[in-house]
Design a protein that fits this description.
There is one protein chain. This protein is about 20% helix and about 30% strand. The protein has about 475 residues and is α/β, with parallel strands linked by helices. It folds into three domains: about 5-230, Alpha-Beta Complex (Spore Coat Polysaccharide Biosynthesis Protein SpsA, Chain A), CATH 3.90.550.10; about 260-445, 3 Solenoid (UDP N-Acetylglucosamine Acyltransferase, domain 1); about 450-480, no CATH class. The longest helix is centred in the middle third of the chain and has 21 residues, at about 235-255. Strand 2 (about 30) and strand 3 form a beta hairpin.
């Protein structure tokens, strides 16, 4: 294959014991994707001929997640020989024999590395005719990190892991970022010479630098000022720190694209969320999954949207909405709970303390207060009165309710599904609707009111109610 061809190897075999989790480290999420999914997306952005992921710990779970996200990835199993050098050696064996191009090595727990940085690294590697290029950074406190070794002229002479470093070497502040670009043939030859004679008894990938340099090959480190690009995740503290940084970058990107975000520090936006210009996001808002928000909408405060479609000019405040479609100019909240399968029509309203599930509420229709609407179809221009409940579950099965266009459901109704209220019908307050209501009809189930005179005096003697009633009777007698 041509020299400009490219392959990416992603290292994902580690156990991640410091996470103290039953979930493999690389599967922990930030920004709505697993750590390794972020790395896979970056790898794909380089448009490589092949992406290879090396796995070992929790092999089935990790490999399954990788293939679900990026199905063309080649999975390679690391054997009993420990170390990144061995992992890469096995990955190289999965490349076609004729592949003679560039190999980029990434880590599955370093999620913020971006395409632009890698493209620049690869470009410089090729232009300078190097066999190995390392992404490095300057750290004031490099404790725990491998150091880049240079001679008096500044030429790179190797990499040393901290556990193998001398006291003098530990004072070096240029660190190895763990992201590499290699010429495939040079890397292969170097790895064949590397052993496990070190403090960790591992086959270090970093030892390839010494082998290539010893053979007269060109090796150099290119420093980045953006430390987050090489930030790895080894425990929950680092996971949250990297997650915050990813979110800050995501929020800023939306702001620069024309979205008003009133308080970036309390706004969380997943990587797959799309937001049009002139959307307003108010504080304490969480936008998750594949949520999309059209221009002119206002979201928040105190609102969570998961996998939702919000159309132009809609307004959602202090509500939780999942897998729902909110129509143009519609209003949701405050304190609404919108569950999966809900579609609210244009200029519709789902109001305070309303729960809606698997229902379609038509254009201009309203469910303003204190109601539960489940498995229901509401037509256009209808109104559901306060305190209405759709009783959709009979203890075994869920049933559908249909409310037609321009229907008026009275307050405190119970609709016993399956039932249909046809277009233009009314139901009186307090009605229990057990059978269909024809178009234009009024349904009511009100028993005649009966007043029992003197009941309070007889049954609640001495109470405040009895005393108030007695005063009212005296006042009435005085007027008469």
């Amino acid at each position: 294959m041509a020299e400009h061809s490219l392959a990416v190897i992603i290292l994902a075999a580690g156990q991640g014991t410091r996470m103290k989790s039953t979930l493999p480290k690389v599967l922990h999420p930030i920004g709505g994707r697993s750590l390794i999914a972020h790395v896979l997306d970056t790898a794909a952005g380089l448009q490589p001929e092949q992406v290879i992921a090396v796995v070992r710990h929790e092999r089935e779970r990790v490999a399954g997640a990788i293939l679900e996200h990026a199905g063309a990835t080649v999975i390679v199993d690391q054997d009993e020989v420990p170390g990144t050098g061995r992992a890469v050696e096995q990955a190289l064996a999965a490349l076609p024999a004729e592949f003679d191009g560039t190999v980029v090595v990434l880590s599955g727990d370093v999620p913020l590395i971006d395409v632009a940085t890698l493209e620049s690294l690869v470009s410089g590697h090729r232009e300078q005719g190097r066999e190995m290029t390392i992404l490095s950074a300057i750290f004031e406190n490099p404790t725990g990190l491998g150091r880049i070794l240079r001679d008096a002229s500044g030429a790179m002479t190797g990499i040393v892991e901290e556990k193998d470093a001398t006291d003098t070497q530990r004072k070096i502040t240029e660190i190895n970022g763990g992201i590499y670009v290699f010429a495939r043939r040079s890397l292969e030859a170097a790895l064949a010479q590397i052993d496990t004679n070190n403090a960790q008894a591992e086959k270090y990938l970093t030892d390839a630098a010494d082998r290539i340099l010893a053979g007269g090959g060109r090796v150099d480190a290119v420093s980045t000022r953006d430390h987050w690009l090489i930030a790895g995740v080894n425990d929950r503290v680092q996971l949250s720190a990297v997650g915050r940084e990813l979110n800050a970058r995501t929020v800023e990107a939306h702001q620069r694209a024309g979205v008003t975000i009133q308080d970036p520090t309390t706004t969380w936006i997943d990587a797959d969320v799309s937001i049009d210009a002139d959307v307003v996001i108010l504080p304490n808002t969480y936008l998750k999954g594949a949520t999309s928000i059209a221009s002119g909408a206002e979201i928040g405060p105190d609102t969570t949207l998961v996998d939702c479609e919000v159309r132009e000019g809609a307004r959602i405040r202090r509500s939780e909405v999942t897998l729902a479609v909110i129509g143009a100019g519609a209003e949701v909240g405050p304190f609404s709970f919108i569950r999966p399968g809900t579609e609210l029509g244009n200029k519709g309203k789902i109001g305070a303390f309303v729960e809606v599930k698997n229902s379609q509420v038509g254009d201009g229709s309203k469910v303003p207060h204190l109601s539960y609407i489940g498995d229901t179809e509401v037509g256009d221009g209808s109104n559901v009165g306060a305190g209405t409940i759709v009783a959709n579950y009979d203890g075994v099965n869920k049933h559908r309710t249909v409310i037609g266009d321009a229907v008026r459901i009275g307050s405190k109704n119970v609709l016993i599904a399956p039932v249909t209220v046809e277009a233009g019908a009314y139901t009186a307050a307090g009605t229990v609707v057990r059978k269909g209501v024809p178009a234009g009809s009024l349904a009511m189930s009100v028993a005649p009111q009966r007043n029992i005179a003197g009941w309070v005096a007889e049954n609640r003697s001495g109470t405040a109610s009895a005393e108030a009633a007695e005063r009212a009777e005296h006042a009435k007698g005085s007027v008469e």
